[in-house]
Amino acid sequence: MVAAIAGHQLGTRPGTASPATHPSLTVANPYAVGGFWYKGNLQIASVHGVGRDLPSAISDWYSGRGYDFLGISDQNTYTWASDYGRPGFVGMPVVDASYPFADVLAVGIDHWLPARDLQGAVDWIRHDGGLPVLAAPLAPGKPQSLQRMLGLRGLFGLEIYDARLAAAGAGQGDATSAWDGLLSAGMRVYAFAGDDLRSLDDPTAGGAWIDVLAPAADLDSLFSSLRAGAFVASTGAAFTSFSVVGTTINAEAAPGCSLRFIGRGGRVLKSVASPSGSYRVTGAEGYVRVEALRDDGARAWSQPFFLSRR
Q: What SS3 state is found at 41?
């Protein structure tokens, strides 16, 4: 009796099929974890690799400039996080898994393994619990075509901005368009930015980084937020908050910034000439990401807000 009454109230009659329901649009918010923003860099070379500086000197430089964590990523060798981490400044395990065909940052990994190809490198990093991030995809010595990247399975991140390469020549350091190509094909890949530092004397030191949204500045919290995509990439602009209400994405950046909401194919969905704005998703965008552009040209990239119907 109760079921019959409920069916009648929904517009059906006993003995008839329920009308087809339309899946509702859902916007996944990678920043739902909440917490505080912590600044860090994961692409730094020391004297243990191709760099010129001691891990302790690198730690002093970055911690003295407001960074909260650091990953020294020497090539095919692990530089102990205890060599540069200290109370109040987190050392994050990371290795630059360098091969003739590519460089892959093995975030959260304390060792290196050989690989025959890029897929093999991604596979062993994932198998061992790390986050594989394709570094410097536009580097002249190891350029990665979009077609090759589209064939990868399990790639976690792409370094969309490499400060050292950006200074070396136009078109070498900014891989944002390649990132949009991967996202448009349905791949879930997160954006990273880093200094690719070789020496603290380099003018690009401190030129690119990530800001991680985490409950606390400890290794477990930071790594968990990274895995969840709760971070942004930056060359100087800064986001302060994100939220999703229904199908509306809200973003706020620091003063002096404007916003752009971007979808499939890198298409600009909406531009906002202020540091605060929102975009209501229709479902046709494929994904939505947000860029903050500061008046002096500095940028920041949010991670994608992925869309689904349930």
A: strand
